[in-house]
Specification:
This protein is mostly helical. 76% of the residues lie in helices and 3% in strands. It folds into two domains: 33-151, no CATH class; 153-229, no CATH class. The chain contains ten helices and two strands; from the N terminus they run ααααααααββαα.
């Protein structure tokens, strides 16, 4: 009886795997390459976390030309916002060789970024932003699940289109000021982030013509309850 149950479970697992592979087929990746890529994403997360906090702490002097550029672009606030980090995570996930690699790569990237940002703040800014960092640590814990979904967004069929719509909805609300009856431009950098999302998700004109309008429409509908503005 136990043997039969085990065989049934294996058959069911195989069926689920086959269905997922029909959406998007994973590529083979050696253990060595997987370790190297994960290490690079972790180090990249650390570097960007330090840069983000450095920009946040930078005392801008309008007499220095590159300070004026940073002030005009509002880089400190931009790198403290969700949009750019979500785009980086989307790129990492979408172009990973498999869903599992996407989950791990995005997780180690966020882990490196959060630890570096938090440590830099404590060591060089003189305070512990524990409440703020709990949000980012929560995002880090959820990131593997979201990365798997983003990986399948580059697949074929109905499921990827649904995922595309959800992703475009989130980025619409993150990159534009959207209300139930209005939309406002937040800045060039946010527009470039949104354009980057469209490029990453693009597979064919039909997919874009469905997911882009649907994502925008959904963003208007849920804007009254969207928590981050």
């Amino acid at each position: 009886m136990k043997m039969q149950e085990r065989l049934n479970h294996m058959a069911k697992t195989k069926t689920i795997k086959e269905r997922l592979n029909r959406i998007r087929t994973p590529k083979q990746c050696s253990v060595k390459n997987a370790i190297i890529s994960a290490a690079l994403f972790f180090v990249g997360g650390i570097a960007l976390g330090i840069i983000a906090k450095w920009l946040d702490n930078l005392a801008l002097d309008s007499t220095i030309w590159w300070h004026r550029l940073f002030e005009t672009m509002d880089l400190g606030n931009f790198f403290s916002d969700f949009a750019i980090w979500l785009l980086i995570a989307l790129v990492i996930a979408a172009f990973s060789p498999s869903a599992l690699r996407a989950a791990f790569n995005v997780f180690v990237f966020f882990a490196g970024m959060c630890v570096a940002y938090h440590a830099y703040t404590v060591l060089f800014s003189g305070f512990n932003p524990s409440s703020y960092m709990m949000i980012w640590y929560g995002v880090t814990l959820l990131s593997p699940i979201l990365a798997v979904l983003c990986w399948y967004a580059k697949g074929t069929g109905t499921v990827p289109v649904i995922i595309d719509i959800a992703i475009i909805t989130v980025f619409s609300l993150s990159c534009f000021a959207i209300g139930l009856f209005y939309i406002s431009f937040r800045g060039v950098l946010y527009f470039l982030v949104f354009a980057g999302v469209v490029v990453v998700l693009y597979r064919d004109p039909k997919q874009l013509l469905i997911s882009l309008p649907a994502g925008f429409l959904l963003s208007f509908l849920i804007s009254p309850i969207w928590p981050y503005r």
